């Protein structure tokens, strides 16, 4: 099935057009600066043909019109008729407690995504805009929503309840949700394929380390705990987010510096993390370069980043009663042997023996532990778009079979 996968953000839409049977990406691209008169669309076709142009793209409707137009384009396109877009799969950040899997988009689903806007005000409205634009532009094409939170919905209550008055959970749904679920699901499944062991028999710790970072304890195929919580701010240190802190610090800084809610929100989400500690950059490549140049705060940011991941490896090994595999993925996890080595240093007691040669080798997907290491450590490039496309094809095929 040919599926258009859309990731609609506030001012950008990323897309991939995927043939799910062959898993080929027929075309991919993005529209950036939506809302501006100099928005930019860049598009790459499977044969390498590339096109980039600027246009006035004032909203998501127009952006998706451009995406469909470029897929249909004589010179740069990959289809001849709109109907060749057999389904559309959307990334939706927050599915709340309603969605523990991907679903066909119906009016009821749209309503529920709307209800969850309060939980993800920075993401869900834009995801929804993409869905509504497609409904208008491709009214006969089935659409599927794939939620970042869904994979973590099977977490047990003791892992998702905060130590707050229980009424706050009932009243405002304040609980831990977790994010990056599509990535944790993909890499844990892929690890079981690479290791040749059914996922039902594996205790896997997955570490998605990109600009946003999170880990999950995936026990026998189920996410039983994850580091992000009510929002993506909890857990690991990230590019610009603080991760875990004592919540009393928020009140203390607000008092000391006279910060408003918006200012403290920006402090925790945009000025903390690697950037905040190093004062240099939120980008791990620059942190590592500065660290090599002898910058002590870049070294500190690197150390805090790795230390917290190591701490959660210990925690999740305890949660699962052991660990069989650890997976590193996303920008930092896939590309930084230094980070992987630092995290795994001192974990020999758990049965982890890193093979430096494998850790430094250029392969993208690999096992980086020695053959006799009891716990296998893997590097697996994440592929959230593929998961969205495959979920979409599966759900749409079932619906079509039932309506025949
Ligand atoms: P996003 O969460 O926005 O999708 P990515 O998964 O692309 O982000 O990850 C971005 C992070 O990956 C940045 O911190 C970047 O520095 C880091 N990164 C990319 N390549 C390397 C590398 N070779 N070494 C270290 N870090 C890298």
From TrEMBL:
Compartment(s): Cytoplasm
Residue(s) at site: Transition state stabilizer: 180, 241
Gene3D superfamilies: 3.30.420.40
Keyword Metal-binding: yes
Any Pfam family matching the protein: Acetate_kinase
Residue numbers annotated as active site: 148 (proton donor/acceptor)
Pathway field: Metabolic intermediate biosynthesis; acetyl-CoA biosynthesis; acetyl-CoA from acetate: step 1/2
Any one GO cellular component localisation term in the record: cytoplasm
Cofactor: binding details: Mg(2+). Can also accept Mn(2+).
Entry's EC annotation: 2.7.2.1
Cleavable signal peptide: none
Database matches in SUPFAM superfamilies: Actin-like ATPase domain
Function summary: Catalyzes the formation of acetyl phosphate from acetate and ATP. Can also catalyze the reverse reaction.
Subunit note: Homodimer.
Family: Belongs to the acetokinase family.
Protein name per its UniProtKB record: Acetate kinase
Organism: Candidatus Thermokryptus mobilis
């Amino acid at each position: 099935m040919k599926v258009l996968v859309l990731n609609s953000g506030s001012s950008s839409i990323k897309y991939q057009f995927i043939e799910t049977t062959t898993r080929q990406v027929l075309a991919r691209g993005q529209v950036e600066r939506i809302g501006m008169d100099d928005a930019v669309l860049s598009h790459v076709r499977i044969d390498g043909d590339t096109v980039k142009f600027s246009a006035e793209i004032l909203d998501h409707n127009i952006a998706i019109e451009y995406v469909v137009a470029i897929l249909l384009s004589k010179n740069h396109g990959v289809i001849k008729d709109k109907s060749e877009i057999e389904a559309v799969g959307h990334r939706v950040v927050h599915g709340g407690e309603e969605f523990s899997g991907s679903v066909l988009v119906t009016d009821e689903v749209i309503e529920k995504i709307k209800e969850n806007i309060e939980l993800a005000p920075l993401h869900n409205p834009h995801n929804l805009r993409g869905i509504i634009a497609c409904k208008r532009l491709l009214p006969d094409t089935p659409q599927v929503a794939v939620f970042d939170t869904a994979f973590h919905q099977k977490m047990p209550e003791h892992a998702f309840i905060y130590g707050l008055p229980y009424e706050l959970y009932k009243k405002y749904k304040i609980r831990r949700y977790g994010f990056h679920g599509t990535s944790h699901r993909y890499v844990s499944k892929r690890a079981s394929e690479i290791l040749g062991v059914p996922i039902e028999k594996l205790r896997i710790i997955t570490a998605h380390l990109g600009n946003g970072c999170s880990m999950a304890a995936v026990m026998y195929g189920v996410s039983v705990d994850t580091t992000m919580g009510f929002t993506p701010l909890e857990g690991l240190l990230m590019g610009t987010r603080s991760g875990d802190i004592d919540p009393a610090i928020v009140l203390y800084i607000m008092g000391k510096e006279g910060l408003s809610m918006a200012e403290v929100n920006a402090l925790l989400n945009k000025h903390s993390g690697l950037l905040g500690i190093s004062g240099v950059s939120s980008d791990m490549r620059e942190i590592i370069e500065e660290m090599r140049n002898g910058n002590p705060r870049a070294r500190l940011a690197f150390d805090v980043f790795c230390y917290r991941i190591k701490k959660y490896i210990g925690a999740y090994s305890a949660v699962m009663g052991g660990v069989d595999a650890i997976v590193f993925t996303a920008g930092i996890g896939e590309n930084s042997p230094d980070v992987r080595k630092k995290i795994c240093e001192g974990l020999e007691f758990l049965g982890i023996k890193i093979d430096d040669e494998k850790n430094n080798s250029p392969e993208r997907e690999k096992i980086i532990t020695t053959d006799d290491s009891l716990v296998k450590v893997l590097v697996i490039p994440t592929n959230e778009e593929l998961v969205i496309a495959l979920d979409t094809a599966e759900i749409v095929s079932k619906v079509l079979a039932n309506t025949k």
